[in-house]
Design brief:
- It is elongated, with a radius of gyration of 32 Å.
- The chain is built from 15 helices and 20 strands.
- Strand 7 (360-362) and strand 8 form a beta hairpin.
- The chain folds into three domains: 31-79 and 97-128; 132-265, Tetratricopeptide repeat domain (Serine Threonine Protein Phosphatase 5, Tetratricopeptide repeat, Alpha Horseshoe), CATH 1.25.40; 302-515, q2cbj1_9rhob like domain (Jelly Rolls, Sandwich).
- It is α+β, with helices and mostly antiparallel strands.
- The strands form five sheets. It has a nine-stranded antiparallel sheet with strand order 3-4-5-17-13-20-11-10-6. Strands 9-12-18-15-16 form a five-stranded antiparallel sheet. Strands 1-2 form a two-stranded antiparallel ribbon.
Length: 524
């Protein structure tokens, strides 16, 4: 019997692990706004389920209250004329029967749990709910937003995002979850700021049951975090404040003695910090962060211009495209108004059911894998998928003059909470690997913007100090290879985290082999 129970436990644990893996690779709720829509529908079901539970409780409460009135009326009648009441054999019999039978029924009625059906309903929906991995990803996303844009924790908590006030704020439970997960990740400074924010919230508001969070628990956690940051004096202050509320709490008294001993001996309790530069709160913004914050100086190149392109293909003679040259080294242009509203909506409808977590090809592993440096969901469509994809590829040909034979499929992407793609190149550098020997390297990238983004979500090129903001209906195109076919390292680029909004893009990576007629200078 014991071995059977052990086997059942192992099976449940295995299912949970598999569910977590499936969630990361497939569900990954926070990596796409479109993917989170179904969470609101699920939450609506859960709220309705909770309301059903409340209705059952009210029915039972109503039954109890009505019975109390009747029972109390009879009891008061008996106690007002006790002797006369008990002298009547009918009253005596009724009292004995009630005490023997009715109160047993009441005991069973009170023990009969309300809400088992609703509890089972929640359990059945848990497979569709976010996992602990989803929460960790959401914490990382919010932390990424805070660091990339240089925001203050207290501003984020009250809904002030990059100077814009929104009608939303975080609760103590939100702040505490941020602190706990950042602490586990070794991001101690960030954890300390979120714990402080939790305590600030608790000074002004009170959590309703059943969500009770004790101040002494939060303060102890704060003290422990400060100790790991080697801020012993501040940690002692926090424990002393906690002791004013609970002067005889054994855990707090032990923690106080521990800190005082560390101060006397001068022992450091500081933990090794991650090498990640984001862990340093006092570091200056990187070139990438400067681009995301709009801090690059404006271009002074007089050769950059805007014009109608009517020469790349014969079709443009009839329908020229609005083209803005934004860079010459590497060559980079923006085409404006190249997607209609109808086309954008059709693309979104086409992509939404097929969206899956974006991956990155790792040559060392020889496969595509989920990475923290890219958080979005994607859907792929062959060139001949439908009339819209055929039109889009024809338009890309008009924009670039390139032959799309052998190029990659259209990739539609939606970014969610803090969705980003860290610094990377689009080229493979086929001189070092043979994965693209047949069709060649990625000679050019075309990136369509299918939505405006309220805040954030820019495409930045940190090496050349260029920032391109999403404009619904526009597209940016650049060359990834030099004239001799060698990779152009100036094309290092990144997608900044989405701060507020839903970012939709569509990109096409064009391969070099089919361009031997239009680009004769490629490597031989």
């Amino acid at each position: 019997m014991a071995s059977f129970k052990w086997l059942i436990s192992l099976m449940l644990l295995t299912c949970q692990v598999l569910r977590q893996v499936h969630s990361v690779e497939e569900a990954s709720h926070c990596t796409s706004v479109a993917g989170m829509v179904k969470l609101l529908e699920l939450e609506d079901q859960l709220i309705q389920n909770l309301e059903d539970y409340a209705d059952e409780l009210e029915k039972k409460l109503d039954t109890v209250r009505r019975s109390i009135d009747s029972l109390r009326l009879e009891n008061q009648k008996a106690r007002s004329t006790t002797v006369d009441y008990l002298s009547n054999p009918l009253n005596s019999f009724s009292l004995i029967r009630r005490m023997n039978r009715d109160w047993l029924i009441w005991q069973l009625y009170m023990e009969d749990q309300v809400g088992l059906t609703q509890a089972d309903k929640i359990q059945s929906l848990r497979e569709e709910m976010p996992t602990s991995t989803d929460v960790e990803e959401a914490v990382s996303a919010l932390d990424r937003i805070q660091v990339t844009y240089g925001l203050k924790v207290e501003d984020i908590a009250k809904g002030l995002l990059n100077g814009n006030q929104y009608p939303v704020s975080l609760t103590a439970l939100d702040s505490y979850a941020m602190a706990q997960i950042l602490f586990d990740q070794g991001r101690l400074y960030g954890a300390s700021r979120w714990i402080y924010q939790t305590l600030t919230w608790m000074e002004n508001f009170k959590l309703a049951e059943p969500f009770l969070l004790a101040k002494d628990e939060v303060r102890t956690f704060y003290a422990e975090t400060l100790l790991k940051l080697n801020q012993k004096a501040d940690a002692l202050k926090v424990v002393n404040i906690a002791l004013t509320d609970k002067p005889h709490d054994i855990k707090l008294l032990v923690k106080k003695m521990e800190i005082e001993a560390l101060i006397r001996t001068g022992t450091s309790n500081q933990q090794p910090q991650p090498t990640n530069p984001l862990s340093n709160p006092n570091s200056h913004p990187t070139l990438y962060e400067m681009g995301c914050r709009g801090m690059y100086p404006p271009s002074t190149d007089s050769k950059l211009l805007c014009r109608y392109n009517s020469t790349t293909t014969p079709f443009l003679t009839l329908a020229p495209l609005k083209m803005e040259v934004v860079g010459l080294n590497p060559y980079m242009v923006i085409y404006h108004d190249v997607l209609s509203t109808a086309e954008i909506e059709e693309m979104k409808e086409m992509a939404t059911p097929s969206l899956k977590r974006a991956t990155v090809f790792k040559a060392s592993e020889g496969k595509n894998t989920v990475v923290k440096t890219r958080t979005s969901k994607v859907a792929w469509f062959p060139d001949s998928y439908n009339s819209l994809t055929l039109r889009l590829n024809a338009r890309i040909n008009d924009m670039t003059g390139f032959d799309l034979s052998g190029s990659e499929m259209l990739q539609l992407m939606n970014y969610g909470l803090g969705g980003h793609y860290d610094r990377h190149y689009d080229f493979f550098n086929t001189t070092q690997q043979n994965s693209s020997a047949l069709t060649g390297d990625r000679i050019a990238t075309v990136l369509f913007y299918m939505s405006d983004v309220e805040q954030g979500g820019a495409t930045v090129f940190p090496t050349i100090h260029k920032t391109v903001y999403p404009q619904r209906g526009s597209a940016i195109m650049w060359y990834n290879l030099k004239d001799d076919g060698e990779p152009d390292e100036l094309t290092l680029h990144a997608a900044c985290p989405v701060l507020v909004g839903s970012k939709w893009v569509c990109n096409k990576w064009i391969r070099e082999r089919a361009q031997f007629r239009s680009r004769p200078c490629l490597k031989k």
